[in-house]
Amino acid sequence: MRNGVPQAPGLWPDGHHGARLVCVDPDHVREVWPLVAPLIERAIVTTGLSSFATIEHDILVGASLLWVAWNGAMIEAAAATSLQQTDAGKVCVITACAGAGMSRWLPLIRGIETYAQAEGCCCVRIFGRKGWARVLDGYRQTYAIIDKRLP
Fold first, then answer.
1. Measured between alpha carbons, how far is 42 from 119 in angstroms, rounded to an integer?
2. Which of 53, 60, 104, 131 is deepest in the core (most CB within 10 A)?
């Protein structure tokens, strides 16, 4: 654990188009941030569900994790997660996610789900557009938030 944030393994093999999900080490996030900030900001502006400044701050101080879909040559997508304790249990919240070529990196969410399960989360929760429920297997719409329960 670093700065109160459990550390995730660095790479999650996807087995799909050779892409990998990389959890950026909080000690090195400032080096990567300029490359992914526009993606994260686009996701936040599109939904209006949170504040870019808040998510940026949380990532840069290590209170949230930054994940990227890396194909060996470029970053295809970026996501931000935070662990939150609720009355129903610990939840891994994907607070922002955006990128190009969704079909290539969407299966990488399994890595975030595996991380959340290892951290004792009862679910992964997504704050985003309703359309995520259509493209993510096992997620269902609960109000304006979609959840996937973890075993």
1. 28
2. 104
